[in-house]
Structures are given as structure tokens and as C-alpha cells.
Design brief:
two-stranded antiparallel ribbon, 402 residues, 7 strands, alpha+beta, 20 helices, 7% strand, 5-stranded mixed β-sheet, globular
Length: 402
């Protein structure tokens, strides 16, 4: 298996963009290149990599349109960043220290931080700080996405402000507890609030725990619908900047415990060999026989978090059941994908938690939603979802996840 010319050009452009360099591409279809960059939320970096090359003269109208897109995206990111920073100061003024994770922390590792786009800002809070943080957000004009009486049943709550740009997700747990396969993942961060570090006005986890979280967050999305190239950039840049602060032996043991070690090793290899992010890895991470091209192709095809199409998104119930079966040895058929357990449905349909007898109604609502989505999308079908799921299950076997 090898990358095609379009995939090679895209990776070259990303590599140049995240290093602040120009990308000289061979026989590139720039319209398709920018479309893939949009799907991967990497358009600002890709555009920066090619805008000063000779391709500009040959594609002036296209480049002018993409330039406006980039300006809009970066301006929106700058405004969102400023609003989040002001909001975070409100927490600090009240003696609260929510942990900032993912995009906000990773963006400062890039040459142009606001080119690293984030749809939201994620904070991880302790049980004791959850309601105080919620109250501060509400007092400052934010609105929660769930009723007050359901707050304490949620793993995460999203907050938006009318006429504002910030979109904040507050997590009581970093991984969805309705999916039993995530219990081990949450366990790694049970003491995260006791080992914080401060950086640029935010509190976050120590470098080791952040590295582990970035890997497991990518793993979570991979076994569901897929991940994007941006996560390889985040993980690679974190490894490069914090090599000396990471306990690499412990990290391997932690990843191995949840069958994510070979997957993580493939990501490190992609970051190093394809994205030009240089860092040294000790044994056993430095194995050279891991094939990372299948993971790279799946990530380019699927877009950011595997959200490129409904077929891929709908295949996730099958892949997740396969991973669960690999964990506990219990075989799960297609019916378990159609009728998930009550614990899972409670998190998606809050009325099931209040009235368990409504579980069949929630199943019906879920099935109706699927039928509606497939009817609206001609390229989506149950047969195609099953076919893709089987293909991705084989991919997971390649990395010893199943």
C-alpha cells in the first residue's frame, strides 16, 4: 500500500505549513488540495505553504478565494481565543483551576498559533469545581446545552454565548463514561488535578499526562470513525517539545494496557517520517517495522475525526462493538449496534435516565434518525457502512487494537 500523488502533495503541504516553509508540489490539483485541507481543518497552514510559490500565478482566482477563507478562519480563531482567555480569568479570580486540554494548549507549539483552528475550547474540571465553574459561565452570559436538573448526569456540557465567539466544553470526565470501553481511559486521569502545570495564564496537565491524553483522544476517535492529520501534528509537536519531560517507558506501559501502543507508535512514525517533526524515541517505541501508511490513508480519507460522510459515521457502532468484544471476549452482533445498552442511551437521550421504561422509544428515535439521514444522503447506506466497518476493523487488527 502506498500514497497516491494527491495524498503525497497534501502531506508535503501540511509538513511545510507547520514548519513555516514553502511547499513545491508536483502536478498538484490545488482545488482538491484546498478541499482536503478544509476537511482536515488545516487550510491556513496548507495555504501558507503554497501561496508564495509559482502556483499562485497559475491559479489566481482560486487562491484569492482561499485567501479570504483563511482570513475569515484565522480572524474567527483569534476572536475565539481572546474571549476564552477573558473567560478563563474569571475562573482564576474565584480560585478555580480548570484544566485546559487539546487545541488551546497545542496551538502555541505552531509557528502561527491562530492558524491551528479549534472548533471549541475544552476544560476538565473536578467534581467539586463543576458547579462553581458552571455558575461562573452562566453569570458571564453563557448558556448551557442542557437543563439545570440534568447537569450532574452529564460527562460534558457545552456552553455558548449569544453574539459571542467562544464555544466551551466543560468535562467532568475526559472520555464518555456511557461507553464501558472508556472506563480504563478515564482511570489514567483520576489524579490529574493534583499534578498541574501553569503555562501562559492557563492550568493544564503535566507534559506526560498531556501526551497520554493526546494519544488516547486520537485512539478514541480512531476506533469510532477515524482521526485527522491535525492530531498527528499535535502529538508530534508535543513529543518534540517535551521529550525530556515524558516518562517514555511508563507511557508505553499505559498505552499497552489499553491496546494502543502500536497505534501510538504508528502516529510517532508518521509525525517523524512524513511530517518532518524530529524527536528521538527510546525502545520499545523505536520499532521500525510498523506500517503507518494504512493509518495515514484512512486519516486523509476520513477527514477531521472521521466526519467526512455519514457512511463512515454510521460505521462507528460496528467498529466500537468490535473493540469492546476484543476487550471482554463477548461477541456482539449487529443487533447490539442497532440497540445499544441503557447506559449508552441515557447519555444520548436524557429522558431514558429519568424514565427507564422509555428505552424502546429512544431506540426507535435513534433508528428513525438513521433512516432520515441515509434518505437525505444518496451515498450513504447500511450496506456501505457495514462494508467500511469491516475494512476499518481489519485496520485496527493491523495495530493490535483488536
Amino acid at each position: 500500500m502506498s500514497l497516491n500523488s494527491a495524498e503525497i502533495n497534501f502531506i508535503k503541504a501540511v509538513k511545510a505549513g507547520i514548519h513555516g516553509e514553502n511547499a513545491m508540489l508536483k502536478d498538484a490539483d490545488y482545488s482538491a488540495l484546498f478541499e482536503t485541507a478544509m476537511q482536515q481543518k488545516l487550510l491556513p497552514f496548507v495555504f501558507e505553504a503554497v501561496r508564495k510559490t509559482s502556483a499562485l500565478q497559475q491559479n489566481q482566482a482560486l487562491f484569492a478565494a482561499e485567501k479570504q477563507q483563511v482570513i475569515n478562519q484565522v480572524l474567527s480563531q483569534t476572536l475565539r481565543s481572546a474571549e476564552f482567555e477573558e473567560t478563563y480569568k474569571k475562573f482564576l479570580e474565584e480560585g478555580l483551576r480548570p484544566i485546559v486540554v487539546k487545541g488551546r494548549i497545542c496551538s502555541r507549539l505552531y509557528p502561527l498559533r491562530d492558524h491551528r483552528l479549534s472548533a471549541d475550547d475544552d476544560i476538565f474540571v473536578s467534581e467539586n469545581d463543576f458547579l462553581p465553574c458552571h455558575n461562573i459561565l452562566m453569570q458571564n452570559g453563557f448558556t448551557a446545552d442542557c437543563p439545570e436538573n440534568e447537569l450532574l448526569s452529564k460527562d460534558e456540557v457545552s456552553y455558548t454565548k449569544e453574539n459571542g465567539t467562544a464555544y466551551i466544553e466543560m468535562h467532568r470526565r475526559l472520555f464518555d463514561s456511557s461507553k464501558d470501553m472508556h472506563d480504563d481511559l478515564n482511570g489514567f486521569f483520576a489524579d490529574a488535578h493534583a499534578h498541574l502545570m501553569s503555562t501562559e495564564g492557563f492550568f493544564t496537565m503535566n507534559p506526560h499526562d498531556n501526551m497520554l491524553y493526546l494519544i488516547l483522544h486520537a485512539y478514541k476517535h480512531f476506533v469510532c470513525s477515524g482521526i485527522g492529520i491535525r492530531q498527528f501534528c499535535d502529538i508530534g509537536l508535543w513529543a518534540k517539545n517535551y521529550t525530556a519531560d515524558i516518562d517514555w517507558t511508563l507511557l508505553y506501559e499505559q498505552c499497552q494496557k489499553v491496546r494502543a501502543a502500536k497505534f501510538a507508535a504508528a502516529i510517532f512514525k508518521i509525525a517523524n517520517e512524513y511530517l518532518g517533526i524530529e524527536f528521538d524515541l527510546p525502545q520499545p517505541w523505536s520499532e521500525s517495522d510498523i506500517s503507518c501508511v494504512p493509518l495515514l490513508k484512512d486519516s486523509i480519507c476520513g477527514g477531521i475525526y472521521g466526519s467526512n460522510d455519514y457512511t463512515r459515521l454510521h460505521s462507528s457502532t460496528i467498529t466500537l462493538n468490535a473493540v469492546r468484544s476484543g476487550r471482554d471476549g463477548k461477541r456482539r452482533g449487529i443487533l447490539s449496534s442497532v440497540f445499544p445498552p441503557k447506559r449508552y442511551m441515557e447519555n444520548k437521550y436524557s429522558y431514558v435516565k429519568r424514565h427507564s421504561w422509555l428505552l424502546p422509544a429512544a431506540w426507535g428515535q435513534r433508528i428513525f434518525r438513521y433512516i432520515r439521514e441515509t434518505a437525505e444522503n444518496k451515498d450513504d447506506s447500511a450496506a456501505e457502512s457495514v462494508k467500511l466497518a469491516k475494512k476499518r476493523i481489519e485496520l485496527m487488527k493491523t495495530y493490535d487494537i483488536i
